[in-house]
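Colleagues,

For the teaching module next term, I've prepared a clean inverse folding example: a structure given as tokens, and then the sequence designed for it. I'd like students to try predicting residues themselves before seeing the answer, so please don't circulate the second half yet.
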């Protein structure tokens, strides 16, 4: 066996008991009601955020706003990823991998419990994993990530055996995120509004359109959080969020959406300014199924018409990294591919002429997120210079998910893809990119199945194929720009996961 065994400290029991019935009653009574102002105590955190989750069910929607609130806070996984991108134990205290890399045997922490008091046992893990493969209303990316799983079996109460159909270098990383959430089987029917997790927090209140309040789970099986409550407040206007921070109404801006305003927070006696990296690529998706975009010369021309450095400077105050393909600097296979389809408007016009695509008109549909709407304006102007007419439509995020992400009703779109190591997205022609390249599929599969020593060079080959083929236009990698009050500690510099992880944060 290839050993992956880890030792962890004995858990400490939480310091405050929160009745599940009380939490559920509050939820039922508060959804849609008028919120009160959160009390500012030493153990309360108020976080400014941009996009509200459309549901409390992480398996039902690909929206990254769901795990931002719930992952590691309310829901837990067998393993988790830390801020350095390293896999660590969570519900599983140890695991082994077979010599052929297809069988994972996880040993659960016997202390682990759901918020309901029910033990996190092997059958709960098996039920959670198997429902992704058997239920119909599961988000497509999760189905894709778990497609490699052949069987999940409860060996005994605290031992789970997962058998893969083939070796996969990425699967363990996949289950450190949403695909690997372990749900309380007794709570599956109400997941849309009432989470059923084992994490250090429970959902206390959800004021739809305004805020979400999490409360410390007094019966938490592990180390108790240092916060009593955490409130996520949602702002459509980034300037309004900045004003709330300056006024002292927020403790944290989870990711600054107006980077040109960063100097407003220069008073170190009041604020901490954290600048790091994320896993997010701001991608201008190209609907590869559209007749006008099937020609690689057209796709290359679109990319070459856009000065990505000028866009980054204009849209995001120069904060971020130019990348050139679907990999960010924290990926082990990252390399700078910005020279492929670099800025060349003359060359772009030539390619359009060769493709007989002069006078092209395209619809650019974007969610109302600051980086997306600002980038759309820049792109419209840039493409106009090479003879492409672009119609920009701004959509609320729920509509964008329905019409663009799920419905494929678009020519181009702009959104950040923040899932770690997410090259698999391009292997699925049904995904909203509708990219279909058998050569790329083979390259990705070879990299995923290869011995670990071959992973990086093979994945770089796949990444370069996406760039050469202009499968999308990679505008820039999002930075992690977090503003906190000077009294807030424990916020990591880099965002390596989808979670805004509250478990390390404290106020003083």
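(Answer key — instructors only)
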């Amino acid at each position: 066996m290839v050993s992956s065994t880890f030792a962890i400290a004995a858990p400490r029991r939480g310091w405050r008991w929160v009745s599940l019935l009380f939490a559920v009653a509050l939820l039922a009574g508060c959804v849609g009601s008028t919120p009160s102002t959160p009390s500012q105590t030493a153990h309360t955190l108020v976080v400014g955020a941009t996009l509200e989750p459309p549901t409390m069910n992480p398996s039902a929607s690909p929206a990254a706003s769901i795990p931002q609130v719930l992952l590691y806070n309310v829901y837990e996984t067998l393993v988790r990823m830390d801020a350095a991108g390293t896999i660590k134990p969570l519900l599983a205290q140890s695991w082994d991998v077979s010599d052929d890399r297809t069988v994972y045997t996880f040993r659960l922490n016997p202390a682990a419990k759901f918020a309901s008091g029910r033990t996190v046992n092997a059958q709960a893990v098996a039920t959670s994993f198997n429902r992704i493969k058997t239920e119909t209303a599961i988000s497509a990316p999760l189905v894709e990530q778990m497609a490699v799983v052949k069987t999940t079996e409860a060996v005994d109460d605290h031992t789970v055996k997962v058998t893969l159909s083939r070796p996969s270098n990425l699967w363990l990383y996949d289950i450190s995120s949403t695909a690997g959430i372990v749900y309380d089987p007794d709570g599956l029917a109400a997941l849309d509004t009432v989470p059923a997790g084992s994490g250090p927090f429970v959902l206390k209140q959800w004021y739809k359109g305004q805020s979400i309040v999490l409360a410390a789970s007094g019966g938490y099986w592990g180390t108790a959080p240092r916060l009593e409550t955490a409130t996520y407040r949602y702002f459509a206007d980034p300037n309004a969020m900045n004003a709330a921070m300056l006024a002292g109404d927020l403790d944290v801006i989870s990711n600054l959406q107006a980077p040109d305003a960063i100097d407003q927070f220069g008073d170190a006696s009041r604020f901490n300014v954290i600048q790091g990296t994320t896993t997010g690529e701001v991608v201008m998706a190209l609907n590869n199924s559209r007749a006008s975009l099937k020609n690689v010369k057209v796709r290359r021309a679109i990319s070459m018409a856009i000065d990505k450095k000028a866009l980054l400077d204009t849209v995001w105050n120069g904060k971020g990294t130019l990348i050139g393909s679907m990999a960010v600097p924290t990926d082990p296979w990252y390399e700078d591919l910005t020279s492929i389809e670099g800025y060349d408007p003359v060359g772009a016009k030539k390619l359009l002429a060769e493709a007989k695509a002069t006078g092209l008109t395209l619809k650019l549909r974007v969610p109302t997120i600051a980086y997306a709407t600002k980038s759309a304006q820049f792109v419209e102007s840039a493409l106009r210079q090479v003879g492409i007419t672009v119609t920009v439509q701004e959509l609320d995020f729920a509509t964008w998910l329905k019409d663009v992400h799920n419905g494929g009703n678009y020519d181009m779109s702009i959104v950040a893809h923040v899932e770690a190591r997410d090259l698999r997205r391009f292997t699925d022609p049904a995904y909203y990119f509708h990219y279909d390249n058998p050569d790329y599929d083979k390259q990705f599969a070879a990299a995923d199945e290869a011995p670990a020593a071959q992973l990086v060079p093979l994945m770089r080959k796949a990444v370069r194929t996406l760039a050469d083929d202009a499968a999308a236009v990679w505008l820039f990698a999002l930075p992690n720009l977090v503003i906190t009050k000077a009294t807030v500690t424990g916020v990591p510099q880099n965002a390596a996961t989808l979670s805004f992880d509250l478990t390390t944060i404290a106020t003083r």
